[in-house]
C-alpha cells in the first residue's frame, strides 16, 4: 500500500525529497521519494554521512515536495573550467 501511495505522490509532485547541494563537487542530489517530511528528515543523515565520507564540501540540505527530473545534477561547465589548464599528452608513436 505504501509503495502505491509513493508512486501516486511522486506523479503528482507531492512526495518529499531530500535535496542536497554541494559546492565541491558542484552538484545537486535528490534522494527520495518519501511520504512524509519526517521520513525524509530521518533518512537525510545517512546521505550527508555518505557525501562527507566522499569528500564533498559546502553541503546544504533542503527537504521539499518536488518532482525532480534528474537525481543528480552535475555542473560540468564550472568544474571543467578547473581542468582546462592541464595539458594533454599524446603518444609520439603513429
SS strand fraction: 25-35%
Shape: globular
Strand order of the largest sheet: 3-1-2-4
Query: In which range does the helix fraction lie?
Result: 25-40%
Radius of gyration: 18 Å
Kindly list the characteristics that best describe this protein.
94 residues; alpha+beta; 4 strands; DUF1816; DUF1816 domain-containing protein; 36% helix; globular; 4-stranded antiparallel sheet
Describe the structure.
There is one protein chain. With 94 residues, the protein is of the alpha+beta class. It has one domain. The protein is built from three helices and four strands, in the order αββαββα. It has a four-stranded antiparallel sheet, with helices on one face. Strand 1 and strand 2 form a beta hairpin. The termini are far apart. The relative contact order is 0.21.
Q: What would you say about this model in short?
A:
With 94 residues, the protein is α+β, with helices and mostly antiparallel strands. It has 3 helices and 4 strands; from the N terminus they run αββαββα.
Strand and helix layout:
Blueprint: H1 2-12, E1 16-22, E2 27-34, H2 37-53, E3 60-65, E4 72-74, H3 76-81
Antiparallel strand pairs: 1-2, 1-3, 2-4
Protein name: DUF1816 domain-containing protein
